[in-house]
Amino acid sequence: MHPAVSVIFFTVASGAGFGLIFLLGLGFPVGDGALRAFIVSLAGGGLAVAGLLASTFHLGHPERAWRALSQWRSSWLSREGIAAIVTLCLFGLYALVWMWSGARPVLLGVLVALGAATTVFTTAMIYAQLRTVPQWKTRLTPAVYMSFALASGWLLASALGNHASPEPWGIALVALAWAVKWAWWVRGGRARLSDAGSTPETATGLGFIGKVRLLERPHSGENYLTRDMVHVIGRKHARTLRVLALLLGAGVPVAILTITALTGAPAPVNLLAALSMLLGLLAERWLFFAEAQHAVSLYYGKR
Amino acid sequence: MTSLPAATQKRLGLVIDLDTCVGCHACAVNCKEWNTGALASPLADVDAYGADASGAWLNRIHTFEVTPADAPAQIVHFPKSCLHCDDAPCVTVCPTGASHKRAEDGIVLVTEDLCIGCGLCAWACPYGAREMDPVENVMKKCTLCVDRIYSDTLPEVDRIPACVRTCPSSARHFGDFNDPDSNVSRLVTERGGIDLMPEMGTNPVNKYLPPRPKTNSVSRTDPGRPAAACQPAAPRADGFLGWLDAALDKLG
């Protein structure tokens, strides 16, 4: 699959934003004061909104994006749009009450957290529902998206707060997220098109005669299908990117959190851990798309 | 509504005969011609007469080589357009209701004015039946020539899809699969029509008739397979991605 920069940024940024919103809704301690409440709320809402806006750049007709809210009965993409908007509205209200009164309404907060979790889940289901990409079609996909959102959200919450959050929790969440991703990678290696039973033979129905090989493409140049779904060039640096993802997404954040915990360094140091993890997640998300094999590639002699 | 109808009154679709298709691409060309001038927006091309021509087509003809274990390889031309699946995954993923399956005849269509061009329907389709229009930025797909088959003005003989009308080797047939006595139903029964990628659970309406067995002539020596010389060169990234590519090359 073609790793579109807008979609990679969207899933990473809005994941972290909704992860932060989830924790704030559950009452994650970030210190007192309207200014503090404003800054952390702006970070959560801003990242979520920036991600959603980026995703509209991926559309052919962004001005019609509102129409995507209509088909929640069948479409995960529609559900995601609704969940995101409802969550952001509730969170806006939550942040206003928080800044105004200094108190954090518990019930509204729980609703915000539920909404944020639902939003990230629906984002992941857009991919996890596709039979055409066997590597994505697993319950591990929403587990990966949600645990990365939680871990990166936690890093942001701890960095923007007043250090009331013990770092071992952050280390545990980062480790958990990468453990889930590791399981996803292991499964992904065994869930390619051929493992799902899809081959050039089933794609053409000619397997009863013999081995099938593409002799000639229908067109001499590229087309939408080959650019978007038979995109293999993005796999060129797969090994390097996986190492970078692990290093920036897991190694560096854990090291920084450990140092903060041991030295009592001020909370904003954790911002480095958060930024590093987000960079690592960009590499991870690139691979999520670039390494995915789409069924239509079988008609083009590729995987 | 992007929920699928429980059942459709008719199940209109195509039978494609892989035994008689000669790979002339006439069906694709006539499809392009008709659907460029038809009711919806034109089927656009970009750089149509240049070195990097690209555009939206609703029908593509692949050519495969099939090698049996004990006989010489054979060539099979393979036309591919929307299969108007009973369980069309491209319909249910659509967030706007643009993509829909008609309850009366089972045709899967895109309402272009509702399409936001997200591309998710194309991702959901295992067959590559949907292509984004490079100018209109909406999803295009085979309409089964809905503007021909129900036309009041075209001569009766032309009220079939353009690809079927134009095929010089009668490799394409149009009809109602719900009618057991229709030409398409009979062909499927007689010739053992098959589904493409049944493992995807799409239940396609269109069926493919497999090539008839070849008469075995005396086997000659294998002249060796042509090298992969016809493969296009790997695309190269430029700009920022080009720099990133070079930097990552250095890393490992």
Alpha-carbon distance between the two ends of chain A: 10 Å
Overall form of chain A: globular
Termini separation of chain B (Å)? 50 Å
Average pLDDT of chain A, to the nearest integer?
Answer: 94
Summarize the entry for a quick read.
Chain A is mainly α and 303 residues long.
Protein described:
The complex is a heterodimer of chains A (303) and B (252). By secondary structure, chain A is mainly alpha-helical. Chain A has helices at 5-25, 34-56, 76-101, 106-128, 140-160, 167-189, 200-204, 224-228, 238-263, 270-290, and one strand spanning 211-216. With 252 residues, chain B is an alpha+beta fold. Chain B has a single domain (12-209), classed as Alpha-Beta Plaits (2-Layer Sandwich), CATH 3.30.70.20. Chain B is 20% helix and 18% strand. Chain B has helices at residues 26-36, 89-92, 120-124, 146-149, 162-166, 183-191, 239-251, and strands at 12-17, 45-46, 54-55, 59-67, 74-81, 99-101, 108-110, 131-132, 139-140, 172-176, 207-209. At the A-B interface, helix 3, helix 7, strand 1, helix 8 and helix 9 of A face strand 3, strand 4, strand 5, helix 2 and helix 3 of B. Strand 1 of chain A pairs antiparallel with strand 4 (59-67) of chain B.
Topology:
The complex is a heterodimer of chains A (303) and B (252).
Chain A: H1 5-25, H2 34-56, H3 76-101, H4 106-128, H5 140-160, H6 167-189, H7 200-204, E1 211-216, H8 224-228, H9 238-263, H10 270-290
Chain B: E1 12-17, H1 26-36, E2 45-46, E3 54-55, E4 59-67, E5 74-81, H2 89-92, E6 99-101, E7 108-110, H3 120-124, E8 131-132, E9 139-140, H4 146-149, H5 162-166, E10 172-176, H6 183-191, E11 207-209, H7 239-251
Parallel strand pairs in B: 1-11
Antiparallel strand pairs in B: 1-10, 2-3, 4-5, 6-7, 8-9
